[in-house]
Every structure is written in C-alpha cells, then in structure tokens.
Amino acid sequence: xxxxxxxxxxxxxxxxxxxxxxxxxxxxxxxxxxxxxxxxxxxxxxxxxxxxxxxxxxxxxxxxxxxxxxxxxxxxxxxxxxxxxxxxxxxxxxxxxxxxxxxxxxxxxxxxxxxxxxxxxxxxxxxxxxxxxxxxxxxxxxxxxxxxxxxxxxxxxxxxxxxxxxxxxxxxxxxxxxxxxxxxxx
Length: 186
Prior knowledge:
This protein is 21% helix and 39% strand. With 186 residues, it is of the alpha+beta class. The protein has a 7-stranded antiparallel sheet. The protein has a single domain (37-185), classed as Roll (Pnp Oxidase, Chain A), CATH 2.30.110.10. The relative contact order is 0.19. It has 4 helices and 12 strands, in the order ααβββββαβαββββββ. It is globular, with a radius of gyration of 18 Å. It starts with a helix and ends in a 6-residue tail after the last strand.
C-alpha cells in the first residue's frame, strides 16, 4: 500500500465528529466559508424550457477525462431540471455581469420562457442548455454522476464542449457580496 492509499484508508476510518453542527455553528461555518473568494457562474439546463441559477459551488475535477462538478440544493428547481435533462451548462461570469448574477439569484424572477429574456444567450451545441454570451468562458456537460452532499447534490459533469469569451476580468463573490478583481495590481 503506498502513502496516498494509506492516507485515504486512514481518512475513511477516522471517527465522525462527536458534536453535530448546531444552527449557531452553521452561521459561523457560513461566515468562515464566505471568506473564501470564488468566481460566479450561471448554471443552466433544459433546451425546451430552460432554467438558470447563479452558483459559486463549481470546480474542475479531472483533466483526463475532463470533468467538473457543481453543487445544487436539493430544494432548488435547478436540481430536478438537471436530473431530467441529464445535462447542464456553466457560464463563468465576467466583471461586467453582476446584473446577470443578481437576476439568476432572484427567486422572484420569471420561471418560464421569459427567464432568459434579459441576457444574450445561445443554445449549447450538444445539449441545448443556455450559454450566456459575454462571459469569461463556458462549459457544456453531460451529467456523469450524482453524489449525496448533505442538503445539496454534487453533480459531476462530463465536459462535452467549451468556449472562451473576450473578457478577462472575473466577477468574484467574497464575504456575501460581489467583488471585482483589481487587475491594476496583477
């Protein structure tokens, strides 16, 4: 058994924490996690009746094969939309798209054929999932697996296609608010 196998075996055998997280602890946990700056995306699914949501729980998983993951609350409309479609797209928002992020984070926005009326978009070439124009980049994915993630599901996406935009400055989320990268010091 090599060192990495030993570490995985040891981690799997580690005892669970004795004390469950309380409501107060959840708020502290959320505050601590809010200190980690993330990029902002819009996840979309559904060719015939598209749906989108703002998300920052997104990361690459593997280069070979190319895989990404997103985390979606089980209670979110997007959860059933992804499982029904078996596919989704991720549009990485640029600094000038805070209004897009706010729109898809607003629970009171239209949830019908008008949901994407405020943005320029095109259907993904493989799945038809909406891809927002003017973004940093985008990925179109086939749903490869779904894992339990507590009150969320972890959706693993097999990347079918990718694209890049002209923009370079990302929209960031930090301490509960949108932020811009100061590229003058980069």
